[in-house]
User: What shape does this take?
Amino acid sequence: MTARAVVSTGDPRIARTREALRLAMLELLERKPLEQVTISDIVTTAGVGKTTFFRHFSSKEALLDAIAADQIERLIGLTLPISEACDHGAAAVALFSYVDAHRPLWSALLTGGAAGAVREAYLQQARAIAAEKARPGGWLPADCGVVLVISGTIELLTWWLAQPEPLPVKRVAGIYEKVVVAPVLEAGSR
Assistant: This one.
């Protein structure tokens, strides 16, 4: 059963429990790295029992995967309409502004051992969107473009979040647009 399937049952208790677990994990990740977070920490912070935790998630990594998928869904929902309007600069600023506003969470996701889960969630969702919106033409296969953009996005975000004095949002968004997005868009249209 997937994270989305459980919530779709409509039972508000299930939704509340899953949200309590999600918030507990996020709170704990702001204080310590993933490898130091235990299921006991999560359930204590969430105010639920271990059995309840395991009814919803098989591991702390599964909970983190669900959080990562949700965050990617939010990022895509925020940036896709702007990208579709061909304002890639504004989409880049929206992406980096969102991550900056949620810096502790994204730092935990990308530098605390969840980068692989974030990348996979991002690739899965971006591939689905690309398949719906595939345009013929260009020498670069659409799936390759998706992989390049998502990989570049994750790597640039990870680098940016690890900086002791991070670049301003607009500057890193400009780098992203010029180095990650523009080359792939250009290759896809030739």
